[in-house]
Amino acid sequence: MLKFTKITLSALALITTSLGAANAAVTVLGWPGGSEETALRAVAEAYNAQSGVADADKVELLFYSRDGFYDKLQADMAAGSSAFDINLLATYSIGRYASYMEPVDLGPDAAKVFGESVLKTMQFNGKQYGVPTDLSLHFMYYRKDLIDALLADPAARAKYAEISEKYLGRRLEPKAPDSWTWDDWAATALYFAKSVNPESPVRYGTVLQMKNLLFNIMVWQSVARANGGDWMDASGNITIDSPAYRTALELYKKLYDAGASPKDSLSYEYAETNAAFGSGQVATALQWNAAASELTDPAKSPAVAENVGIVAPPAGSAGRADHIHGLGLGINKNAKNKPGAAKFLQWLATEDTALLYARSGGSPALLPDVAAKIAKERPDLVTLGQYAGAYGYVMTGATSASAFPVYELQAKEFTGYWSGQETLDEALANTKAGMEKLLKQ
Amino acid sequence: MVDLDHKGWRIFASPLVGFLLLFLGFPILIDLVYSLSRVSFTNLRSPEIVGFGNYGEVLGDAQFWRASWFSLRFGVITAILECVLGLGLAVFLSPLIEKRSWLMAPLMLPLMVAPAMIGLMYRLVLHEFVGPVPYYLYLWFGDSPSFLNAENAFWTLVVVETLQWTPFALLLFYTAYRAIPNDVREASAIDGASARQILTAIELPLMRPTLIFTFFIRFIDGFRVFDNVYTLTGSGPGGSTTSLPIYIYEAFFKQGAIGKAIAASVILFLASFVGLYALTWLSRRGKGAAS
C-alpha cells in the first residue's frame, strides 16, 4: 500500500511539474489553416531556437478551426480564459476585444518596419493592442487581353462610348486600368456584359460580391470612400446618408440590374468571386489581395492566369481609396505569462522577424525600403505596401467595439437595397438609425 | 413487477430530477435573468436588470416577425411537401422495396449528410460557373435563372430541404404501410373496393398516427432550420432568408445583443410550447373521435 501511495504521489508530482512548465510557456492562439498559420509556425520555431529565450518563455501554438473563430474567441475571452497568452485580433474587431486585452509596447523600431498607418490598424483609443502580422486590402483584377483589345479597336471604343452615355449619362473613352475612375470601371463592366453588349467576348463585365456578409461591405465601401464617404464626422455625427454613399450604392445596383454581374451575385462572397473570374467569363473583379496567388496561378486558374492584370481600386471624386484591415497578435488580459508574451510580440515587430514572416508565406504590410529587401521573393508584398501606404484607410469608428455589428447592419440594409426590397432612402435611414444606436452605446 | 410506494418513487426519481434541474433548470434560470437584463459579453457576470425591455424590443422588431413568418412558412411548406412525396413514394415503391430491400439504403443516403454540408454542396451545385445545374441549363436553354436572389432563394431552400428530408418521411410511411395487415386489403378487395378506395378509406386512416407524427417532426425540423440555410445564403439579401434560429444567432454573436437574443429564444420557447400543446390536444381529440 505504501509503495502504491509513493508511486501515485510521484506520478502526481510529475504531472504537476509538467503542467507548471506548460503554463510557463507563452501560448499563442493564431489564425488557423492558411498562410498565416504556416508563417506563424516558422517564426515561432525560429524564436524558440534562440539561445537567449528561457524555457519558460518558449512559444507554443494553439489553433481553433476557422468556422466561428471570432464567436469562440469572444466567448472564451468573456469567460476570462487563460488558455492562451497571446490571441489573434483583427482591425474590425479590436474594439470588441480590447477590454479583455492588455496594451503592448512594440518599441520604437516597429514604426520603421510597418509605418504608422499600418500600426494604426491594431490601435484602439490611441493604444497599441497588437503587432500587425498580415494586412488585407483590395486589388482591381482585370483581363489584360480583353482591355488591350478594347483599347486597340476603334469600333469597340465607339460602342463603349455609346454604352457609357446610355447607362452613365456621359460619353467616356476607354482608358488603361491604372487610370480608371469608378465610372470608367463601370463603363468597362457594362461594355463587357452580354446583356448590354451581345458582342462581348465574355458573359459579364464584372463580378460583384453582394452577399449579406460584413466582409463584402469592406470590399464595396472603397467606392464610397473614394467619393469622400465616411461613417462619421469629427463630432461623432453619423454621415452615412451622404452623396458619396448614395453614389456608391447606386453604382452597384445599376451594374447588377443591367446584368453586368452574375445573376446570383447577391449570394456571392470571396470563393464565388474567384470561381467566376477564374472561369474566364468575367472581365474585371474587385477582390481581396489574397486572391492574387490563386488567380495568377496557371494550375489553379488556367483560363485567365496568363492575362490577369492587377491595379489599385479606381479613383472617385476624392481620389483613390483602398480598405485595409490587419490581422495581428496581442496579449490576453488573463495571460499567465504576460512578460513572456510581451517579449515575443516585441521580437515579432522587428525587421528581421517581419521579413522571416513574409518569406514564410505571411502578408505583412512593410514600408517600401523594408519590402524592397524581399521584392524578388514576394513582389506582391511590394504592391501591398505601396497601396496600403498610398490609399489605405480605416473608416472612422471602424475599430470601435460596435464595428462588427455596424458592418453587419450595413450588409443587411445595403443588400436589401441592391435586391430591390428597400428603397435607397429606407436603407440609408435604417442604417443611420442603427449606427447611431450602436456607435453611441 | 415491483410496486413502488411514494417514498420509493422519490428515491428513484431524484437522480433524474437532479439532472434536469442542473442541466436544464439552471441554464433556463440564467436565460430568464439575461432576458430581463442589459447584458453583453463585457458584463456577462454582472448583468444589469432592466425589466421587460428586451421583450419589447424583440416584439417591436420587424425583422423578428419577418423571421417568424419565414420559419412558419418554411416549416409548413417543407413538411407538407416531404409528407406528400414521402407518402407517394412509400405507396408507389412498396412492392419494389418489399422484393429488393437493399433499395432502401441508397434512398436513405441524403439523411446521412450533415445539413451544413448540404448547404455547402448546393453552393457549388448552383454556382453559375462551376455548378452542373446552371451548366446544363446554359447548354440546353442558353440561360440559367438566379437560384439564390431575394425572389427565388426561399423556394430554392425549400427544394433543398425537401430533397434531403423526404427519405425520412418515406422511411416512416413505408414502415407504417407495410404494417397494415394484408388481410384487411384482401377483405376490402373481395367486398369490391377499388385500389383508390382501399388507399383512401383503409390504408390512409390506418396510417394516420404516423402521418400526423411525421408531419409534426418535419414541421419542427423545418421551423428551426439553421445549418443549410446559413451555409447556402446566410441571412439572405436584406435578411430575406433569416429564420428564427438565424435571427437569434445573429443577435447574440454578430450584434452582441445577448439580452435581446435570449428574450427572442424565450418567446420562441413559449410559442413552441403553446403550439405543441395545442397540436397534442388536437391529436388526442382526433384519436377520441376515431375510437
Automatic annotation (TrEMBL), chain A:
It is found in: Periplasm. Residues 1-24 form the signal peptide. GO terms for cellular component: periplasmic space. Keywords: Periplasm, Signal, Sugar transport, Transport. Pfam families: SBP_bac_1. SUPFAM superfamilies: Periplasmic binding protein-like II. PANTHER family: ARABINOSE-BINDING PROTEIN-RELATED, DIACETYLCHITOBIOSE BINDING PROTEIN DASA. Belongs to the bacterial solute-binding protein 1 family. This is Multiple sugar transport system substrate-binding protein. The lineage of its organism: Bacteria, Pseudomonadati, Pseudomonadota, Alphaproteobacteria, Hyphomicrobiales.
TrEMBL record, chain B:
The keyword Transport applies. It is found in: Cell membrane. Pfam families: BPD_transp_1. One of its GO terms (biological process) is transmembrane transport. It is a multi-pass membrane protein. GO terms for cellular component: plasma membrane. The chain crosses the membrane at residues 12-34, 74-93, 105-125, 153-177, 198-220, 261-282. Residues 68-279 form the ABC transmembrane type-1 domain. Signal peptide: none annotated. Keywords: Cell membrane, Membrane, Sugar transport, Transmembrane, Transmembrane helix, Transport. This is Multiple sugar transport system permease protein. The lineage of its organism: Bacteria, Pseudomonadati, Pseudomonadota, Alphaproteobacteria, Hyphomicrobiales.
